[in-house]
Amino acid sequence: MALIFTPGGMGTMIKSYYFKQKLSTSHSKIIPVAFFERYHDLLGITILIVITLFLFYSLPSVIIASISTTLLIMIYVVIQNQSIMVKIQTILEQIRWIKKFIPNRELNTSIQELSKFHPITLGIGISILSWIIDATAVYFVFKGFLQTFEFLNVFQLYYSSLVYGAISLLLGGLGVTEGSFLGMLMTYSLDISIASSIVIMTRLITVWFATICGLISTYFIINKK
Question: What is the pTM of this model?
Answer without folding.
Answer: 0.77
